[in-house]
Each structure stands twice: as structure tokens, then as C-alpha cells.
Amino acid sequence: FMRPRDAIKFVNLCIVQADGNEYIIPNHILNAETIYRKEMLDALKDEWRNLYPNIDAYIKAIRNTMGNRFSFVEIKDKFENISDSLFSMNLSDEEDKVLQTFVDAKGNHTAEEEALKNLLNVLYTIGVLGVTSHTKDIVYSSSDKSELDMFDFDDNIFYLHPLFKKLEILFSSNSDIKSSNNKIGYSPISS
After folding, report:
1. 3 state DSSP class of 43
2. Distance from chain centroid for Cα 64
3. What is the largest CA-CA distance in the chain?
4. Which of 34, 110, 113, 152 lies at a 20 to 30 A Cα distance from 103?
5. Considering the chain, what is the average pLDDT of its residues?
6. How many other C-beta atoms lie within 10 A of the C-beta of residue 158?
7. pTM of structure
8. Alpha helices, DSSP H only, in the chain?
């Protein structure tokens, strides 16, 4: 979660998913997570739409090509895959400077690297990507560091923010979820 109100929003979604049940079970949490992810992505797109009209395409291209964790060395070898992924999606008709760098870079190795750096910087700036710091902590964009610098592309590892990762299986099967005795009790607050 990014802010306390985000945590509160998520807990409230879990309660709504429980729909009057005495307990919140893992299935309610998973359903709330799906809704929460979509709402957060929609809010992110609304906030940055004027500058980056195809944010969802940027995220999907990185996530589908690179996974949740990668280095710049790894991504450099995947320029074609990322480019193909970007342009295979339903894109906005609005001018998109990020996508234009990919069009202009085709076949020019240096320009391809710059297009990838630009894409990663955009994803970092809007809070989708984090990067390891010199202490090996994952750092996300903040007022202290709102953009990547040239050294961030050297030996650091990039991480998709947990909200934008590929959904990972939390339980070994759906039957584990249905038969789970893991319950979280709550008392609905009545007004």
C-alpha cells in the first residue's frame, strides 16, 4: 500500500466482498484484491493520461515480456519483444512520445537503449517500477528521487510494484480456498 487510506480502502473492499458474512475468507480477499488493482490502475491512468496516454500498454508490455523483476541488461535483449508487445495492443490515438521513441529507434541499437530507458523512467516516475538502491532496498519514485538517473541502469534490479505484478497464486488450488478454515472476523460498523 502507498498510503494509509489505501490500506483502509482495501480493508473496506474485503468487508464488502464478505457481504454480511461473519468472517472474511481468503476468497473475499482475492476478489477485493482484483477490484483494488483495477481501481488503482484506473486512478493512475486518469492522473497521468495527458502525458502518457497508453500507461496500461507500457505496464503490460513490461510485465508480459520481463516478469516482475529484471535488470537493464536483461531488458536490452528484449527490445523487439517489448516493441511488438506495445504495438500489438489497442492503443490510444493520442500522441504518445514514449511509443514514438520505439518507432524511431527500430534498428538503431543506441536509440533502442534510450527508448527502453525512457520507458523505464516513465514507469518509475509514475510509481509502477521500483529500483534497488545502494543499500539494496527497493526505492519507488518520491519527492527525494522522482526520476531515474544514468547510474540506475548499471547493476540495479527493477521491480514491478506489487499492485502491478502478475497475479501470483496464493493458495495451491481453488479447493484450498473453498475449504479453508482461515477466517478473519470483523464487526460491521453500523451507522
Report:
1. helix
2. 11
3. 63
4. 152
5. 85
6. 25
7. 0.79
8. 4-18, 26-48, 55-66, 72-76, 79-87, 97-105, 109-125, 174-179
